[in-house]
Amino acid sequence: MISMSVIHSIRCMRKEGASVAAIARELGISEPTVRKYLREVDLSDRPPVRRERPSKIDRWVPLIEGWLAEDRRTWSKQRHTATRIHRRLVDECGADVSLSTVTRKVRELKREFGLERQRGFLDLSWHPGEAQADFGQSDVYWK
Hints:
By secondary structure, the chain is an all-alpha fold. Among the domains are: 4-39; 58-113, no CATH class. It has helices at residues 4-15, 20-27, 31-39, 61-71, 82-93, 99-113. It holds the Pfam family HTH_23.
């Protein structure tokens, strides 16, 4: 790609009546390049086009879904974590997937299955003038 100053020169020379061949000769660029920049209206950079490609984990999703379906019938401490699923995929199936890929997919599948973690706390709210007190035992040392 050529610089914006060269593109500006191409357009100015053309407005002054110079031919495409003369512009190319004077600036040291090819005639097709001169024609290209004379045709273009929008000179902003175009973002690269990302092609969708299948993920490496797609072939293992039915197996993972089966494991997560079994997890619904077990205690919460016995359920599969993403790390455990990754280890099983590598050891038992010879899968060539990274831990981060497995973690991302497991998080998505757990949301679908409703197996996501429950919040471990409650939001405490009280109206103005009210207070909360916790009754318990503590040791205090005065000096």
